[in-house]
Amino acid sequence: MKVLVSDNVAAEAIERLRAIEGIEVDYAPEAKGEELKKRLADAEGLIVRSATKVTAELIAAAPRLRCIVRAGVGVDTVDVPAASRRGIIVMNTPGGNTLSTAEQTMALLLGLSRNVYPACASMKAGKWDRKSYMGTQLAGKTIGVLGLGRIGIEVARRCAAFGMAVLGFDPYITPERAKQLQITLAPNLDEVWAKADYITVHVPMSDETRGMIGATQLAKMKEGVRIINCARGGIVAEAALAAAIRSGKVAGAALDVFESEPPTSRELVDLPQVLCTPHLGASTEEAQVSVAIEAVEIITDALLHGRVRNAVNVPAVDPKEAEALAPYAALARCLGRLEIQRLRRLPARVSVTYAGEAAKLNARYLTAHLLAAFLESALDEAVNVINAPYLAEERGIRVTESQAAHSRDFATLITVASTVDGEEHEAAGTLVGKGDPRIVGIDGYRVEAMPRGTLLVLFAEDKPGLIGRVGMLLGERGINIAAMTFGRKSVGGDAITVLNLDGALDEATLRAVQAAPNVRNAQVVTF
User: Fold this and answer.
1) How high is the mean pLDDT of the chain?
2) Into how many domains does the chain fold?
3) 70, 85, 86, 279: which is the annotated catalytic residue?
4) 15 lies in which domain range?
């Protein structure tokens, strides 16, 4: 299978990629426009850095593309929604440049504190001016670290070694882990604004983080605060930062990233209190080799072995976790197939509840499997766990998840409730034995049906003779009943019967069953 590498990457990585059996390498770092589209036409994998902008138009020109790997941390050069709608995995290499970016942050932190650049420029101009470049020491100061991922943690460690008090903010780190790292966790950002002498940003760019340091936040900070950003341009609002520096509220800023690169405005760059570099966080020889080799490993794992790592548009699971989740994913898919065939149309709402053991698992991953099964028979396009959530959203399906620690009758229970034309429908399933799926509830009726082959689901009045008549209809057509389950809410009231059939059920036979006395509805579900 063909992998296109459309940006300059380390030679060591290209050599390693070419040595892998089953991979055809197209290394074309100069390809642009129509030539790039032509090379992508038969590519199944694409490795990029920053130069190639993977737009929706480019994705449309790659009908066989299965995965895109960005050799770097961010994926802002990739149209992730467009890739997701096509079912293309988008991955990055967050570990390769961790140390290089952490060291760049420390270099800017130190340079800003000790006025290294202006003092150097002064000396090169022939001056010896010690008074103008009085600095401030790091020891004893408080640094606010926003984002405690790989890079944020490495920066925090280095700041602690310099004698700084580290105040971290990240809702996804536990207090125990923060304590191990000598980090004091702030309960909210306002506490960081109020206490930090320095603030360094290490969060991804998203709708939530765009402009997270703006005029309102800057106004809440200590007088003389210093800002460092080696994450992504736009997280710090540049115009607001420039105004705060000019007013004296902010003593200085050190920036490696900008809202547009190169910057289209010099307002911030030209301020003497600003130390700036042209996005050099990952620009070390070691980091360039590391991210490129990691990109090669990631894309070949995905294409050749189906192992997905560092995906930004797929629920994150490692191979061991995926293996453990496989029976639950199979159950989720069974419930999805059952419900879409019963409803015969897309619902307005899908609510999934995970109870018992299932409540401890990766709900997003399981729901993606359920939605994929839900949509694949309803849509005339390729559906997988990558694009299923996006396709559901595009079609106005509101999906919610919830967890319950206990299930009254089952060790594990997954329940999917759907709303169609204002009517509620429900199906529930569990695992038995070595992880075999079972359907244990349909629209409030207790059943125990095996989701395999062809199921005939009958809703009828609880009257004698029903099963005999239906069995005779099926027998006359040579259709054997392999298993049967029955459920009712009250004697003589409504009841449900689920039959496992050895053969397919044609439309004429289904109509005959529906016309049988006391039958309210009959549905066929195929697994």
Assistant:
1) 90
2) 4
3) 279
4) 2-95+286-305
